[in-house]
From TrEMBL:
Domain of life: Eukaryota
Keywords: Membrane, Transmembrane, Transmembrane helix
Record bears the keyword Nucleotide-binding: no
Primary localization class, coarse: membrane
Topology in the lipid bilayer: Single-pass membrane protein
Localization terms from the record: Membrane
Limits of the Neurexin/syndecan/glycophorin C domain: 29-47
This protein's name: Glycophorin-C isoform X2
Signal peptide (residue range): none
Gene Ontology annotations for the cellular component aspect, listed alphabetically: cortical cytoskeleton; membrane
Amino acid sequence: MASSEMDIAVIAGVIAAVAFVLVCLLLLMLHYMYRHKGTYHTNEAKGTEFAESADAALQDDPSLQDNGDSSRKEYFI
């Protein structure tokens, strides 16, 4: 009788340990998900999301403006 009670105790201990590890992993995953929500950054100018077309939006973008060097032209084929 003592050996069957010992076996039940070992099995219950293993099940409790596995359940504890699963709960710890769940808490770790939830912490990671809420901590790393992520952000979405763009390099576009503010206010261009309401432009009629992509050309109109990019026409006023300050990062794409010509720096005054109009002697050099680029041609794309």
